[in-house]
Design goal:
Elements: H1 3-13, H2 20-30, H3 37-47, H4 49-69, E1 73-76, E2 79-82, H5 90-111, H6 122-132
Antiparallel strand pairs: 1-2
């Protein structure tokens, strides 16, 4: 599609029921014209206030409350603090990340008893992978 055709499409012809089309086009332009489906999905999610609000409610309503009761985090307004984080060295932080990843994998095996990672629920697989590839910095 030529520049003029694309500009006309964006300005005059595109019919939208949500933010998806312009966000995807803008993301592709910013990333050299090619992106994986997963990367585009992350771009869409980062612009979708309703999803952000949903997960904020999940954190305040369930996850955050449980972790506060267990003494793992403290909440001050909209900010959560991981209690004891400042006492961890890099190796301890990496080990805790490993335990989080292993816990997710163990949970996936209880959902998929065969241990077939291909059948692993997508959310668990993504979470475990993101923990595996996370870098750790214990310096503020």
């Amino acid at each position: 599609m030529s520049f003029q055709d694309l500009k006309r499409f964006l300005s005059d012809e595109m019919r939208m029921s949500h933010i998806y089309q312009p966000v995807m086009i803008a993301a592709l332009i910013r990333h050299g014209g090619r992106m994986s489906t997963s990367a585009i999905a992350k771009e869409l999610l980062s612009h979708d206030e309703s999803q952000l609000e949903y997960y904020q409610r999940v954190i305040r309503g369930m996850v955050g409350q449980v972790l506060q009761r267990r003494g793992v985090v403290k909440r001050e307004g909209a900010v959560y603090q991981f209690l004891g984080y400042d006492t961890l060295d890099d190796s301890q932080a990496k080990e805790l990340l490993s335990v989080c990843r292993d816990t997710l994998l163990r949970m996936s095996r209880s959902i998929v008893p065969s241990g077939n990672v291909q059948a692993l629920p997508r959310a668990l697989a993504v979470a475990a992978e993101s923990i595996s590839s996370a870098s750790v910095s214990t310096t503020p």
